[in-house]
Write a structure and sequence with these properties.
This protein is α+β, with helices and mostly antiparallel strands and 183 residues long. The chain has one domain: Hypothetical protein yfbM fold, CATH 3.40.1760. The strands form two sheets. A four-stranded antiparallel β-sheet has the order 4-3-6-5. A two-stranded antiparallel sheet has the order 1-2. The longest helix has 20 residues.
Length: 183
């Protein structure tokens, strides 16, 4: 969902409701994060008294409690997760990964998760570094998408998003998996 910046009558990258977060998780916790996601999913489907929906929000939420306890969130990303999708459209396959954890979490939690092993991170970083993220290229992309009203608000944030993504991907080293959550 996009939220309109009424002062300028346009959508703003700071007010979009999708969050983008990147977590580092030790390989030792790969199975645990999937188990925690399954526990969350089961708790969300469990009926109270046999017919009432579960009381929300889950307290504690097993999945996010596991993430808080076992993963390291990397820096504070100031913009909407939608900008990560713009980066993917400008540089296709940046968000591609062969790692199964992200696919499992997406299926179980019903939100978008992409997991990066060191080799996936290196490949995505190479794609980012070879792509053209110049102001004129981003401007051309936005115009092609019919988003001329967003030019002033999105060019800078897309560039910042690329730098955040490079930093996040660079933090994934042997023994760790990076998990990008968009949702």
């Amino acid at each position: 969902m996009l939220i309109k910046d009424r002062s300028r009558n346009c959508y703003s990258p700071k007010y979009m409701s999708t969050i983008g977060s990147f977590y580092l998780l030790s390989d030792n916790n790969r199975a645990g994060v999937v188990e925690a996601a399954m526990s969350q999913s089961k708790a969300l489907r469990k009926k109270r008294f046999g017919f009432l929906p579960p009381k929300l929000p889950l307290h504690p939420d097993p999945f996010w409690a596991f993430i808080r306890s076992n993963a390291q969130e990397l820096d504070d990303y100031p913009y909407s997760g939608h900008l990560l999708l713009d980066v993917e459209l400008i540089a296709p396959d940046t968000l591609a990964s062969t790692d199964q954890i992200g696919k499992d979490l997406t299926r179980i939690v019903k939100s978008t998760f992409i997991s990066f092993r060191p080799e996936d991170s290196a490949q995505s970083t190479a794609i980012l570094e070879s792509a053209d993220f110049s102001e004129s290229s981003i401007r051309s992309f936005l115009l092609q998408e019919g988003r001329e009203h967003e030019l002033a608000d999105f060019i800078g944030p897309i560039k910042v998003t690329v730098e955040h993504l490079k930093s996040w991907l660079g933090a994934v080293t042997h023994g760790y998996v990076g998990i990008l959550a968009i949702g």
